[in-house]
Design goal:
heterotrimer; A mainly beta (about 130); B alpha/beta (about 400); C alpha/beta (about 350); A: about 130 residues; mainly beta; OB fold (Dihydrolipoamide Acetyltransferase, E2P); three-stranded antiparallel β-sheet; about 40% strand; B: about 400 residues; Peroxisomal Thiolase, Chain A, domain 1; ten-stranded mixed β-sheet; two-stranded antiparallel sheet; about 20% strand
């Protein structure tokens, strides 16, 4: 059985898209970083918590047919790179959508869904997925 | 800094090698390379091994020790180093070997790459590959390794850089060459319809756009260029060995249809070798998914953006086309992809081509050859240029 | 001090199955079953949905409508359900984290069959009214299971609604709440069992009808009101028939219960049923509207509420989250096989 600490630590990012903003150059990052890759030393101690916008548009996508066991009940499923309205890119599943309606450019928004479970008796992992945002 | 030569090469068959253990494979390739170099084996003073994940595939860490032991190095306490960089493990191990000889710290180095994948079940194997992407923010989110490449392909098609057929033709080209390589996992040419109609893996990519799961090993022996003649007449020069890093996750890149690390590494490599892309006669590129082949042709500077697909589709990458030949070994798709071995196997193929020992897939008068080896979705890229002497 | 609803939010999964499709599999006149129950279709949760995700979506919709409320001022959260994902590990803490209300707060999960959500509202009223917390959140949500081939399979559905209870800027004042509670074993599920059991016709008169009518009559007497004094009424709705009948018995009209009766369109969302019915009423309510609510939970009990919509509802940013009409607008219909797969009724390999 996997340990629980690793996923617990990521809850702010997983549930609430908590990212960071570099206090030096203003760039936004998701997932959160403790160090700006552009500013490097100048960013130390200056990284601020930042809520990444939960709406965005599909930048690219794929319908996954060969899926890991965690997603067996929903395959094939759509995975997409979404560009949030903040200009930040995230990768997540796109759900509650008919495949022939998925298009690059379609507006979507983040929701909380089950990502996987550790078997029948282990912990349930929750995280963001996206749904169409008409 | 000394110039470096490759004096011996060796490779096993690639495939589902049920009867061969990891130990057996590593030795087989190494023994062939030593023999090819006319060495006894006791001359080796350093070993570098590229291996992605023996820890997960065969539950064995400390691969450096295993290889040193079973190749007879451990009894002489020769230093051995295992290198991991996703799919670029072999290429990075090669560069480590080149640096060891070039720096003067070592005189005769063996570089090996080996992977034993088929001892694990398919689902677990895929999960190891998924872990070469961003485990927390791509794989855990449901983005399989295949789907990341599929998303690149989807975007490429959307932007008009390549069509679905052009992308598929990378696999056709690889299989065309695999038919000429006795060590290839798949030795049969396939028509493009087979690729286009193959079962979907992650749209738009299907089974035939995907490199197989393989066992295998490859090995080369390196020494200073000035000493090569002592051992063999059949040596090639390492004209350049370059490496570049990039973000772990694909979604953190400014442009997902080009691997910035390939561009950076190849520019450095051309500069070190004193040549340009136009001088390359034969290249091994990393077609773990067919779309990677199109990206490589563009990022390495062989073709302008939007033109690589057309050239591939029209058969201009064949060994006998007169243009830069791509994946004469069969590439990852047809030759096979035992992950840690691939980068070194690419070097072996280029060396064959430059030595004139590439049998009936020989590129005529090949003078410069290039090997591009990629980790993750372009998170690490090595570009090596070899020169015929 | 006045205590009431500061904000509310709702969520129903997008998938549906029709009774005729269920009946087709079991060799039963499904359409007839649906007619008898007054259920046209029911909602089905996607495999990646559960009470946590449904409650979170409802709670996020609730918070979106009050952007001036700092979630850290929420002092309590209670999620009521009979299908909590864990038997031990509260849904409430996960939802609280997902709306960033943690850590300075209390939380606990509730269970009282279909009235766990309204029970939570009562607790929040006490905490707010006594000055112990500034805001409390009560959520009723379920992904209830109906045993294959059983009558409940036609009605057991998924959905939930969340309520922010406070004393400032309330959009609907809760004038009074009271309950009628007895030990009545009409419907139950033992620990570890996948499907509930019920007492057949015993679930009617001695259970649903007795408790709702008792609580409702107690409320009318306590408030000195008659059914015609209310604009809307919301009753628990395990099907479309029971609430229609109990409303008539008490003297409420079909028009009064119309907005609050969602079961015909989405099935019985159990702990979500009355919270969702009330949410649909609030989607349409105007200042001064008076709402009569009586929930029912098997086991058994009824919570009654007398509610008056305030002028504050004119300032309420309802449009910052989708209203139920929009949430229910574009469903996706499933065949029974997909439904069974989604609901975990198929034995999967290890």
């Amino acid at each position: 059985m996997a340990g629980v600490a690793r996923e617990w630590r990521e809850i702010p990012g997983r549930y609430n898209l908590k990212g960071t903003k570099c206090g030096n150059c203003g760039k936004l990052f998701f997932p959160a970083r403790s160090f700006c890759p552009n500013c490097r030393r100048a960013s130390m101690g200056k990284m601020e918590d930042h809520d990444i916008c939960r709406t965005g548009k599909v930048f690219t996508f794929s319908v996954v047919h060969e899926a890991p066991e965690a997603n067996n009940l929903q395959k094939p499923y759509v995975v997409a790179m979404v560009q949030t309205d903040d200009g930040v890119m995230v990768t997540a599943q796109l759900v509650d959508v008919e495949f022939d309606k998925v298009q690059i450019g379609m507006p979507v928004r983040a929701v909380l869904r089950k990502l996987s479970t550790d078997g029948e008796s282990g912990v349930i992992r929750y995280g963001y997925k996206f749904v169409p945002n008409e | 800094m000394r110039e470096v030569a490759i004096i011996g090469i060796g490779v096993t068959k690639f495939g589902e090698l049920w009867n061969k253990s990891f130990r057996a494979l590593g030795i087989e390739a190494g023994a062939k390379a030593i023999e090819d170099a006319n060495l006894s084996g006791s001359e080796i003073d350093g070993v570098f091994i590229g291996n992605l994940s023996a820890g997960r595939f065969i539950n064995q860490q400390h691969i450096d020790a295993l290889v040193a032991d079973y190749t007879g190095m451990a009894s002489r306490h020769i230093p051995a180093t295992r290198v991991e960089a996703g799919g670029a493990s072999g290429g990075v191990a090669f560069r480590q070997g080149v640096m060891a000889v070039a720096s003067g710290m070592h005189d005769i180095v063996m570089v090996g790459g080996a992977e034993k994948m088929t001892d694990l079940d398919d689902a677990s194997i895929n999960s190891v590959m998924d872990a070469t992407a961003d485990s927390e923010w791509e794989a855990e989110m449901g983005a399989t390794f295949a789907s990341l490449h599929a998303m690149i392909a989807q975007r490429m098609i959307y932007e008009g850089t390549a069509t679905r057929e052009e992308i598929a033709s990378v696999a056709v080209n690889s299989h065309f060459h695999g038919a000429f390589n006795p060590n290839a996992q798949f030795k049969k040419a396939v028509p493009i319809e087979t690729v286009l109609r193959s079962g979907p893996v992650a749209t738009p990519l299907g089974m035939f756009d995907t490199a197989p799961i393989s066992d295998g090993a490859a090995s080369v022996v390196l020494c200073p260029l000035e000493d090569a003649k002592k051992y063999t007449d059949n040596y090639v020069k390492v004209a350049a060995s370059a490496q570049a890093s990039d973000t772990l996750a694909l979604f953190q890149r400014p442009d997902i249809t080009s691997y910035g690390a390939t561009v950076a590494a190849s520019q450095k490599a051309y500069e070190l070798a004193g040549i340009t892309a136009a001088d390359i006669n034969v290249a091994e590129v990393h077609d773990v998914y067919s779309v990677g082949g199109i990206m490589a042709l563009q990022d390495l500077g062989f073709y302008k953006k939007g033109e690589a697909g057309k050239a591939m589709l029209e058969g201009q990458c064949h060994f006998d086309s007169g243009k830069v030949a791509i994946n004469t070994s069969g590439g990852l798709k047809a030759r096979g992809h035992p992950i840690g071995a691939t980068g070194v196997a690419q070097i072996v193929e280029i060396a064959h081509q430059l030595r004139g020992t590439a049998d009936n897939r020989q590129v005529k008068d090949a003078k410069y050859g290039l090997a591009q080896n990629v980790g993750g979705t372009g998170s690490a890229v090595t570009v090596s240029i070899l020169e015929a002497i | 001090m006045d205590v009431g609803i500061v904000s509310y939010g709702a969520y129903v999964p997008r998938y549906r199955i029709k009774p005729e499709e269920i009946g087709r599999i079991w060799g039963v006149d499904g359409k007839g079953m649906g007619k008898g129950l007054m259920i046209n279709q029911k909602s089905v949760p996607s495999p990646d949905e559960d009470v946590v995700t449904i409650a979170t979506e409802a709670a996020r919709n609730m918070m979106a409508r009050v952007p001036e409320v700092d979630p850290r001022d929420i002092g309590a959260m209670y999620v009521g359900s009979e299908s909590h994902p864990y038997a031990v590990k509260p849904t409430s803490t996960i939802v609280a984290e997902a709306i960033e209300a943690t850590p300075n707060m209390t939380a606990a999960d509730m269970e009282f069959a279909c009235k766990a959500g309204t029970a939570g509202i009562q607790v929040c009223m006490g905490l707010v009214g006594s000055g112990m917390v500034k805001y409390g959140v009560a959520i009723g949500a379920d992904t209830s299971q109906g045993a294959p081939g059983d009558a409940l399979e036609y009605s057991a559905s998924a959905g939930g609604a969340a309520y922010l209870i406070g004393s400032e800027k309330i959009i609907a004042k809760i004038n009074k709440t009271l309950s009628f509670t007895t030990d009545t074993p009409d419907f139950w599920r033992r620990e570890g069992q996948p499907y509930p059991k019920h007492g057949g016709r015993f679930t009617g008169e001695p259970a649903y009808f007795r408790h709702i009518t008792s609580a409702a009559k107690m409320m009318l007497e306590a408030m000195g009101t008659k059914p015609e004094d209310y604009n809307y009424a919301v009753f628990h709705q395990p099907n479309g028939k029971f609430p229609t009948r109990v409303a008539a018995q008490l003297g409420f009209t079909p028009e009064q219960i119309q907005y609050g009766l969602l079961t015909p369109e989405i099935g019985n969302t159990y702990s979500g049923a009355v919270p969702l019915g009330l949410a649909n009423v609030l989607d349409h309510a105007k200042p001064g509207d008076r709402i009569f609510v009586t929930s029912y939970g098997s086991g058994a009990g009824s919570d009654a509420f007398d509610i008056t919509v305030t002028d504050e509802i004119n300032n309420y940013k309802r449009d910052k989250a989708p209203v139920l009409e929009k949430i229910l607008a574009d469903p996706i219909y499933l065949d029974y096989g997909t439904y069974a797969k989604f609901k975990g009724k198929i034995v999967l390999p290890e």
